[in-house]
User: Fold Inner membrane protein from Halogranum amylolyticum.
Amino acid sequence: MYRFGHFGVSLLVFAPIGFLLVTAGAVELAFVTGATMVWLSTLPDVDHKLPYVTHRGPTHSLLFAAFVGGVFAAVGVFLERNLGLVVTVDGVGTVGLGAFGFLLGSVTVVAHLLGDVITPMGVNFLWPLSTKRYSLSLTPAKSTVWNYGLFALGVFAVAAATVVAIRGL
Ligand SMILES: [Zn+2]
Assistant:
């Protein structure tokens, strides 16, 4: 997908996560999660700019999702150990920033892969173990209707999740 399509899919994936976090009283964590997921929603497409890296190759895989999760986990552990950052959530207790960082980094990449798997070119989730590309072939990546439609849907989902989380049904 293009940029706005990826923003949309990331918002759609974030909506239920944000809902759970806000319901648990972790509004700041929800904000950080949503902002990070949107900010880095097109991170795997950095492969357009990297020499020797094929598009939708290494950076469009579950291995890359785990790698980015690892980097985020390291940042989380650093913030915890060296800067003394402690995040607590009502009813849950202290949130381990290493584990939280891993989940945030990997979900951010997986959301991008979901945005690309609906296009005919598909995604090789299991790179480098496999060469099989998975595709739902729903729309070409450049479709204006799909890109802006997904964006609108994502904004709506996050707005609805926020309202329901704060006000209840
Ligand atoms: Zn991509």
